[in-house]
Amino acid sequence: MEREGLFDDLVAVLHRAALDPAGWQDFSDNLELAFGGSKISLHGVDAGTGSIFLSATSGFAPEFFRPYADYYHSINPFMQASVAIPHGMARVSPQDLPDEFLIQTEFYNDWLRPQEDLFSAVALKSRPAGSRSLVLAMNIRRRDRASFEPELVNLLNRLEPHISHAFHVGEVVAALSHRANLPPDAAMQASVEGGVIETDERRMVLWADAGALMLQGGLLRISILGQLSFADEQVQAWAERICVADERRQPVSAGLPQQVRIGRDWTVRHLRFQGAVSSPTFNRGSRDKSSLGNHHVFVISRVGPSQPLLQVVSRLYGLSGAEAAVAMAIAEGLSTAEIAMARQVSIHTVRNQIRVVLQKMEARTRSDVARMLVQATGSRSS
């Protein structure tokens, strides 16, 4: 029988987590307390990039967490399986990771087994918000498997609508709050080609839009613990100096440029503001008071042909910056849903923008828009 009052208590915490990312850590802690000995993790999964981001944990001893961050996350078969599991329904690990396979892995024998013989897992993936989902995974001791698994599956299935709703609301609130704090020109640069990443003073990611995530593995890295780094050593040194100076309460601008180049094609611009809303996907935990301090925003944008072309399209057809970006996305063959995901706006907004683009360009179809932009590109380069 489900623990008395637990469901209502967890729903109340999820209602808070929808608007306060710190609530996700409390949600994880409450589950761990109710199912003693279980180890809980919340992590974000991005379907577009296959990236996994650890967000909150409960129950893992510190001596096990550090080697996980250093090595074992890279061979964790549960994390890799979470990318492929279906949305909206709790699953037990043998459905995706058979017991006979698990007991042969280095991950189980060297990392799970020493922790009270953690053997099974129950996982739930939220319904997606854009390309991202939140995965709740509960590792269970072998001796608790028979009693905990059925109860957890039932509980998580009942909680799923509340978990998915809280995650969706949190992502929307974070995106709107973040964009509202960006200068208009920075928001425009990021919406055309590139992305925006918000970090705390230790470069722990608090928010990253879809454009930034698409750059991961190339221009930038986000570690399993959520720390941002840049592939370019000089840019990485610049970002480290900015954050170290701020952590020591030194003037950030002293001797440091606010914008640097990555090769010939990209720029990274640094902005700073205080008290931004962070994302549940990247939340670094409610216990960390540094998250209340200054936040750093890195706006990554492409330089060269794409930005002047946007201005040309806007001028030729009387389009706003957002409408010109939508027109260019149409020419690239993106669907309405893909444009909405890339620009972090609703499908309804994109549909309205497409209607305006067709009217202003006097085009009957999307194909007409693509043809006209190809002609505009050719006339500009000739």
Describe the protein's architecture and organization.
The chain contains 15 helices and 12 strands. By secondary structure, it is of the alpha+beta class. A 5-stranded antiparallel sheet has the order 2-1-5-4-3. A 5-stranded antiparallel sheet has the order 7-6-12-11-10, with helices on both faces. Strands 8-9 form a two-stranded antiparallel sheet.
CATH topology of the largest domain: Beta-Lactamase
Q: Judging from the principal axes of the Cα atoms, what is the shape?
A: globular
Share of residues in strands: 15-25%
Number of separate strands:
12
Name given to the CATH architecture of the largest domain: 2-Layer Sandwich
Q: How many domains, as an integer? A: 3
Helix proportion range:
40-55%
The CATH H-level superfamily of the largest domain is Transcription factor LuxR-like, autoinducer-binding domain
Task: Name the structural class.
Answer: alpha+beta
Cα(first) to Cα(last) distance is: 74 Å
Mean pLDDT over the full residue set: 82
Strand order of the largest sheet: 2-1-5-4-3
Largest sheet: 5 strands, antiparallel
The helix/strand order is: HHEEHHEHHEEHHEEHEEHEEEHHHHH
- What is the alpha-carbon Rg in Å? 23 Å
Task: Specify the number of helices.
Answer: 15
CATH class of the largest domain: Alpha Beta
Weakly predicted, low-confidence segments = 285-291, 378-382
InterPro entries: Sig_transdc_resp-reg_C-effctor (IPR016032), Tscrpt_reg_LuxR_C (IPR000792), WH-like_DNA-bd_sf (IPR036388)
Domain HTH luxR-type: 316-373
GO biological process, one term: regulation of DNA-templated transcription
GO molecular function: DNA binding
